[in-house]
Amino acid sequence: MKIFISLVFIIGHLCVFAQTALVGGNVHVGDGETYLENGVLVFDKDRIVFVGTKEVYESVYTNANHTQIDVKGKEIYPALIAPNTTLGLVEVESVRASRDYQEVGAVNPNAEAITAYNVDSKIIPTTYANGILYAQITPQGYLLSGMSSVVRLYAATKREAVLQKSDGLHLFWPQRYWQYNWFSRTGTIAPNKSRSTHLELLKSLFEKASTNADSQDHLDLQIKAIREVVASNKRLYVHVDDAKEIMEAVLFFEKYQINNIVIVGGRDAWKLTDFLKERKISVILSRVHDLPTRVDESASLLYKQPYFLEKDSILFGLNYMGEMEAMGQRNLAFTAGTAAAYGLTKEQALKSISLSTAQILGVDKEIGSLEVGKLASVLVVEGDLLDMRTSIVIKAFLEGKEISLETHHTQLYNKHKKKGD
Amino acid sequence: MKKSGQIVHFLFELMKKTIFLLFLLSCYNLLFAQKHLLLPSPKWVAFVNATIHQDTSQVLENATFLIRGDEIVAIGKEVKIPENTQIIDIKGRHIYPSFIDIYTSFGITLPEKQHHQGLQYDVSHQKALATNDALHPERNAYDFFSYDHKQAKELQQQGFGLVVSHVKDGVARGTSSCIALVDKPKQLVLSEATNDYSFSKGHSHQEYPRSLMGMISLLRQSYYDAQWYEENEGKIPENLAWRAWNEQQQLPQIFEANDKLNVLRADEVAQEFNKEYIVKGGGNEYQIADELQKRKITLIEPVNFSLPIDVSDVYEADWVSLKVMKEWEWAPKNLAILSDKDIPFVLTTTGLEKKTQFLPNLQKAISAGVSENVLLDALTQKPANLLGLSEKLGTLEKGKKASFIISEGSPFQKGNVIYENWVLGERNKLLELNSFDIRGEYDFYVEEEKYSLSITGALEKPKFRFFHDSTTLKSVVSYQKPWLNGVTNLIFDSTRIRFSILFDEKSRISKGKLIKSNGEKLSIILENKQVFEEKKEKPVVAKWKTISEMTYPFQAYGYTKLPVQEKVLIKNPTVWTNGEKGILKNTDVLLLNGRVEEIGQNLTIKGAKVIDGTGKHLTTGIIDEHSHIAIYGGVNEATDAVTAQVRIGDVINHEDINIYRQLGGGVTAIQQLHGSANPIGGQSSLIKLRWGSLPNELKIQDVDGFIKFALGENVKQSNWGSKYTVRYPQTRMGVEQVYELVFLEAKEYETQWKTYNSLSKKEKKKVIKPRKDLQLEAVLEIINKKRFITCHSYVQSEILMLMEVAERHGFRVNTFTHVLEGYKVAEQLKKHGAYASTFADWWAYKFEVNDAIPYNGAMLTKAGVVTAINSDFPEPGRRLNIEAAKLVKYGGLSEEEAWKTVTLNPAIMLHLDNRMGKIEIGMDADVVLWSDNPLSIYAQVEQAYIEGVCLYDIEEEKKMQKRIQEERNALIQKMILEKSKGLPTLKPTLKKEIYYHCEDLH
After folding, report:
1. ipTM beyond 0.85?
2. Residue A300: its chain B contacts at CB < 8 A?
3. Assigned domain for B479 exists
4. Are both B460 and B365 inside the same structural domain?
5. Do B371 and B267 belong together in one domain?
6. Domain region containing B451
7. What is residue A13's predicted lDDT score, i.e. its pLDDT?
8. Do B875 and A91 make contact, defined as CB atoms within 8 angstroms?
9. pLDDT tens digit string along B296-351?
10. Which residues have CB under 8 Å from A371's CB, separation 6+?
């Protein structure tokens, strides 16, 4: 038995785990600045061991036994991260049986998204085929929706998928206005009648969770879950858009010494950059490809919002919340492209879907950029990842392993396309 | 000839007089017999020393106004007053004709709303009436009327003597009644005054119609049905609804529109059926005054001006759109603008929360520039004319009815109370004509102690203040002639004292009793020190100046002046011709008279606007084959499986901000489609995005008709909830059968007409004429290749099915839209000759789109199917260029081919490719200048032209945004000023724009 194990180890070390070098590509590090023309990226097993120009590479590794992959003229990017998504929690939006993202009731801090996560959702491969290898699987709801987890999108089971389990609690701040008849877009919008009740409820929940644990009923799963956030450094993701409500929510949680707040949505965040900066609050911004809330606003307001936050040094990431959230997730990189068309540099735009998101989710030690020591989750792309004209992912390495880019769509494409296509 | 005419006339007059005399004699006999039992003899009343406003121009000062019963006998300076006449001296007071409100619900109790379990597809009654619960032409308002004293008094206080009461329920509402505000048998002036319509189904619980376009269709079909009834009367069963409908066409026709655009929509119906509507507007008609001036519609205008909004909260002020602020500022100007444009209108109290706001709001309208005479005319002569009552009412003349008010001065001026309102000779005292003015400064002696009482306020509602030296004492005082009663704290008694004073109007001193809290009685004396002197109110003058500008449309991003067609030379861009020449680098394009005039190198022309296009790209405007923007009042008439009769073109909303947003995304033309809730939806509308122009001006002229079909989950009501499980069809099998049946019915309909039309005149008289059916006519147009299908579709089986149905009935399906499994049947689509309009990469939002793939567009194109990428929803509608670019990514189309999917290909589908979709000489100058390759995510639209008119300019947009901020700020300041004056305000509320998607049911 022992012999067998060491044999596997040796063979593995020699053959499977030889260091791999992607040579000659242009490297986008993902840190918002660094772009290396004619670069090389080397990884050993699952970790990046070298990132630099070909010149430096050749001087460092004079006699290396690298599996070299020639990617000359191609672009090398870090794997993208999709925060705040129902990916794997829903298969067909209109089919009730396939929806697993919203538990009944308003208080579900103990609900764990990872529990419902379907690693073999047909939607998932369509995202990594477009460069997204990680996601924050997030439960939805209307007050406390539950715990998200950060996952790698290619995995055999939910356990294997987990990169960061229960990274934070999601709270949907009670809005002053609420769209009744939400199922119909024409439903009326009216003052939220349950707002004060919900605010009171939040207050009592967080007060209870802040008091001494021993005195509490150990059967109160909801309070236990909230207490974990209050007591630890877990993040509290507050989904809120309106300027006043953002401030209101932040001040509310300051009372409970919860400092790890991330604003999700934040459509009015650009009006409050001073307020957010002072408190070092980061934002997962509402979908860039969305219309402004108000008629008087510029049609491109949400296109420009990333630039407004960048300019005022707010840490922000992009996401694809909203209609067709899971199935449209693969368009995340293009929303960054639009942000680049409206003020950001391309490298800054890339950062907003890689390193910044990793920082916000607290996984930047492992992923988010192409830096030595981080997991080797790397994309090789035909051209500009952010522009659909050339955004074709040729290869994707997830923590050192190349993964297939085949999807339900390519399968159907291959089945039905005519020869010569 | 003329002479004989005169003789005839004379004989006729003589005859009339004789008959009249005979009539009078018989009346006299009757009266004489019952005189003492029933009717007192008409009373003579003379008002002397009056200022009499006979109409808008004739004013007699210091004159006498003599009436006998309900009739005016004489008006003049030297009127002989008969004996036994009651003489009322109204020195200094004014007499005006009393007002008429032709659009009230006075005294009406609406029929009860029916309660139904579940869905009601059929009419609720079993009678020979109309077959839709929204049609009640047989109703008469007087059947729903009972005199309401409280309402009557409120109206009298605002100067009204006559109203028309309507049963405001349904699309066809029947007749209204003209009611005098007097609780006597003579209240009924006209039992049938007007005949009414609206675009609201009211209390009807029947499913059809639900959308505005459905209401319009129902109304149009009803006109045809009524005509059909008239033409076949005697041959077909009697029907009270249609009989009433036809009889009532002689009356004035009133249409309740309640909004400027509905005014135009009502007018479209009026023109189709050669009617003249008097249209109840929404008070926002000033926004389209130029158009109304051309149309010559008489309006009924409300004066329910909105309150200013409390914008003191910096963040909540953002909820209030510039449009809402501007409408607040401009609403009082409505009447002034209409009157300046000579648009005739009358006024109504309808819409006011309280009737007491009526006269004060007219003061606002005066301060915004309308003249008092115009208002008086709109309240007296005009409505009397409309009702055909000008012989009797509307002005004060000898022989006319004694309906008038006595007021302090002009009733439109502040502080000028109305004392009396005489209705058909019946006196209604609202205030004492010569009431004693108690107001003034008094000394109030309790024993030896002196207190002061100050009485101020309005004559009819005095205010009392007790004080000692300068300290005000708590008190509650009332004057109930002749008693002045009160409770107060006087210094000597820390608790309460009560007093009653018998007020002596003739002397300065009055005496009374006072009881202290301990029961001790004292006597008191009240002595007048000073009479009250009313501060003369300044007359209301035109001082309400608008600081925001009139824009087209009237909201953010509206133009202050509509851009005009220009001669434009775009120098040196890369030109995507979409034609044989492909993509031309460094080429000049000249736009002239709305067309592409020249394409070439080094073009020059005198007087052209020259645009430097170096490094930029010039393309044709994007055409969106599948859009639901700029639609008002519902995108789906989802109530029946087939609603081919409804037309999106009836409900265009030119104010949808998405028009402007999409221009900014390079879109210049769209097909506005009905939704996908039923197998056959409604007729499409093809428009160009001419932001700033009115609905009809957006329509593209001389186009083929299109119609929406839909297949699959939506029409099966799969995702509508458990309530919707009874309408046929509920499976794809049933969908096919719906089509089969309706096409057969349409053919049958055609045969009926052909047979009828082949008959001789004589034979025609014997048979029943076929009924015109708007629904079947639309379906028949499809079979006859005069109307073309755009069919919402997903899976291969249903796509093949519809092609088979079409082939069986001898036509072809023009376009499959969405067609997400089109790639599976590309060959068959090609063979059938159908076009495909799809999404770039949508999928998995419902079960039937599980196998939708982003390669679809490229695969269809490669198979030779003309393919378009569409938006369906406003958001992607403004970035269709990058949606098209996805075809390069998925499936590897060339950039030129990908670009055609949002330009030339949709033009082909909409049969517009002879004028749009290419940059070639003679084509419409609908062009867009991009900062970069239009398929690039980094490209922005710099300019967009429609027929040579620059409708979007990125630099202009920046200026507009600056102006929006400035106007918002100025209006916020103005509203804050109103608030600081202590005037009431409204809280800001968040409003959501309504954007349609093809699955929205309402």
Report:
1. yes
2. 664
3. yes
4. no
5. yes
6. 440-530
7. 43
8. no
9. 899 999 999 999 999 999 999 999 999 999 999 999 999 999 999 999 999 999 99
10. A29, A31, A48, A51
Tell me the residue ranges of DSSP E strands in A313-405: 316-318, 378-381, 393-398, 401-402
Q: What is the DSSP string of B441-500?
A: EEEEEETTEEEEEEEEEETTEEEEEEEETTEEE-EEEEEETTEEEEEEEETTEEEEEEEE
Q: Assess B764–A contact: CB distance below 8 Å, yes or no.
A: no
Q: Are residues B149 and B202 in the same domain?
A: yes
Q: Closest chain B residue to A176 measured between Cα atoms?
A: B990
Q: Do A341 and B319 touch (CB under 8 A)?
A: no
pLDDT, one tens digit per residue, over B842-897 is: 999 889 999 999 999 999 999 999 999 999 999 999 999 999 999 999 999 999 99
- Is the distance from CB of B335 to CB of B346 less than 8 angstroms? no
**Which positions 717-736 of B are in contact with A (Cβ < 8 Å)?**
718-719
Domain-embedded: residue B159: yes
Task: Please give the model's pTM, rounded to 2 decimal places.
Answer: 0.91
Taking Cα atoms as reference points, which of B261, B165, B281, B174 lies closest to residue B216?
Answer: B261
Picking from A287, A159, A279, A171, the residue whose alpha carbon sits closest to that of residue A234 is: A171
Q: State whether residue A394 sits within 8 Å of chain B by CB.
A: no
The closest alpha carbon to A405, from A125, A188, A148, belongs to A125
Tell me, what CATH number does B254's domain have?
3.20.20.140
CA of A91, closest CA in chain B: separation in Å?
7
Q: Which residue of B has its CA nearest to A346?
A: B938
B contacts of A349 (beta carbons < 8 Å): none
Instruction: Please tell me if residue B887 touches chain A, with a CB cutoff of 8 Å.
Output: no
How far is Cα A134 from Cα A369, in angstroms, rounded to an integer? 12
Q: What is the pLDDT of residues A280-336, one digit of tens each?
A: 999 999 999 999 989 999 999 999 999 999 999 999 999 999 989 999 999 999 999
Shared-domain flag, residues B415 and B458: no
Are A336 and A343 in contact, with CB atoms under 8 Å apart? Answer: no
Query: Which tokens is B441 given?
Result: 């400064």
Domains and CATH numbers, chain A: 2-78+381-415 (2.30.40.10), 81-366 (3.20.20.140)
Are residue B457 and residue B393 in the same domain, yes or no? no
What is the number of domains present in chain B?
2
- Best probe of the A interface among B319, B889, B954, B991, by most A CBs < 10 A, is B889
A93 touches chain B (CB under 8 A): yes
Does residue B401 sit in the same domain as residue B511? no
Among B623, B879, B633, residue whose Cα is nearest residue A291: B879
Contact B315 A244 (CB under 8 A): yes
